[in-house]
Amino acid sequence: MEGRSSAKLVAAAAAVAVAMLVLVPEATRAERFIVGDAARWTWGYNYTDWVIKKGPFFQNDSLVFMYDPPNATVHAHSVYMMRSAAAYQSCNLKAARLVANVMQGAGQGYEFVLKKRKPHYFVCGERGGIHCTMGQMKFIVKPKSSACRDD
Ligand SMILES: [Cu+2]
Q: Where is the Phytocyanin domain (predicted)?
């Protein structure tokens, strides 16, 4: 009984090791970006410039949004995804999808994996779109195929 279960354990461990060998090369190629770097996700930082500086982005890269939960001294922030370029341009949040609420940027931040090769229109949804318009809290990322990564 004992021998059989430990043989099973060895087989399971071997299977895991093989799976890791297969998965790790792909996983290590993906990059993780703190949105805004030291500025994090905040009012008045130019995220469009940040995207130009950091890009190109590839499929399976991830964006980490870091911002403090609302308190007496800091503004609340959030992350929304616009469904169209027009909504993005005008900061019209009516049909936007909530990605991370005002609490989810705390601690290690909120991680968004860029799974799809489509334009992602990120904005802050606070103050009825004023953080998006006046605060410049908006940017577009269109990940390239991970096959195009030339590192
Ligand atoms: Cu904001």
A: 31-145
